[in-house]
Amino acid sequence: MTWVTPETGLILGAVTVPLLLLLYFLRLRRQPLRISSTMLWVGAVEDLHANAPFQRLRPSLLLLLQLIALCLIVLSLMRPLVEGGAIKEGKHVILIDRSASMYADVHDGETRFDKAKLEAKELITQIHGGGLFSASGGETMVIAFSESAEIVIPFSNSEQQLNSAIDAIDPSHGKSNIEDALKLARAYTTNVDPEQNGMSMGNSAQLELFSDGNISDLNLQALQRGETIRYHQIGDVNDYNVGITMISAKRLSEASDEVQIFLSLVNSGTKTVTTDVEVSFNGIPVGIQQVQIPQRDGDMLGSKSVVFAPFEIPTGGVVHAAISAKDLLEIDNIASLIIAPPKELKVLLCENGEQLIRTVLEGMPLEKLHVVSPQTLVSMIETGETSQFDVVVVRDVQLNSLPQGRYLLFGPPPKLNVFSTFVEGEAQVMLVARERHPVMRFVRFEDIVVSKGYEIVTDTNVEILLEGSGWPAVMGARENGIQIIYVAFDPLESNWPYLRSFPFFIYNAVQYLGRGGDAISNAHRNVGQTMAFDIPSGVDVVTIEESNGDQHAVQVDVNGTITWGPVRLSGLHKISWDGKVQRRVAVNVPTEELDISSNASISIGATKVTSSGTSESSFVQLWPWALGSVLVVLLAEWWVYQRKTGGVSRFHKSRSTQSWT
Question: Is 522 within the bounds of a domain?
């Protein structure tokens, strides 16, 4: 409340109120006289008591009414104003923020979103509920927004319909963008003025924004002509939150089953928070750490990176990370990551002469093994058919050109720059290996003896995996989209095929090459995005289950795909058909929503709006109401005075006498 002239009212009150009280203390003192009769004794005594000065002040209704009237006059002279309290006539657009930060707890399980809906319904009651303080006429529209916006109900003057529509607003865990909401509001509140050659003009719509003020694109917007806005702040400026902003996974090396989990945590509070962080795989805990997340520094949130010890994930599954800290926003205390299962590989094999490597590959769990002759391989290279396979394995075949792809080669060096310089290699034994490289795991090399091969002159672009006594025996290289594991001799020119390390080497090399380009985790979806998947033939309907348990039946189109969205909730989503969960999709809370401190004021373009105020600083003047109340009090005071003095009784008596005559 604002006082325009408080000094004037205070001075008047300081003067008049004591004077009024003084009048009741000071009464006329009459002189004592002798009388001939005591018949009027009682009345004289009462009159004497009533006019004695400075007697104890007795309860008086007249005095109370006069004091009330005087105080109301003083208040009216001080001219009190209430900022933003006026309900503007005309159209109203209620904008309800339903982004992730609006699900912070307010009190005993009530969220900011719940409170925003409650306050919006109270405003609707003020506008359309009737009564002295409600607006007259006009209509109201409700829009809910987060990543995108939707019209909950178009313009209506029905209080019941508006309240029911607000109750039915679905939650969303996206980030807060108001641009689409403003576009929708303007589309319904803008008409065309034919006198302005078709130029559009606003219908003086008042925007009622219910939000915590954490709107990412608010500074990019601006109010248009005729628009005003009131900001209803939800939440407290001191609210803080601890959450997971990022979860990722990385294999220790290509084709390795050992996976390392990385987390990034933030703290929006002003104190350091100590919490436990647990990582589980398919519901089984695999690691726990206690971490300290520093407090925020100005506008910068406190952050902490966490790295967990590697653990093996030989199959696909779900990695969950959870923090134990109790805060107001719980949906960001858990983050998920879908680990993709190992891909079943398609392998193309070409051997010159005896089918030595084929025996090993046939024992591997491959999706497809295609064996061709050297002539067919050359033809497939020319036509580009080799790109259909994950790995191409070649033994003792000279290749003059290689398209992009992954290759395991034995024997003659390919026509690549990194292997362009070589001579014939003499007999040797193996001396040193990079045993920690995925290709050389479990490969015992000490007993390998090679009779002849190719001595390659290597440079820094070649990684030597197995070094012999005379020349490098196994090498790795990358060049122009080509990845190669090259064995510089034909296995038939050695004793290697008779050793147990040979099938281990083939398995490691094929897995390393075939799985090296795979993403360890399936790409997660963000709130607001659309899910699209290819579905096997024969499936007509797919069920998508959201993280809150809501299920949606989605029809498979003629191309064998489904499209569903936009995604509105964070958490784990399940895609099922044939009665089984076939896929899982992880959706995590947007990073922009983790700072939940509410803003006491917002700026939309160049207009700054304080909570519960209006952009045009309109005020409700209370002094006319105070003066009107003075008239009511004076009428009551007159009636009480007449009752005490008998004026009302004489009035009624005179009217009665006239009626008899």
Answer: no
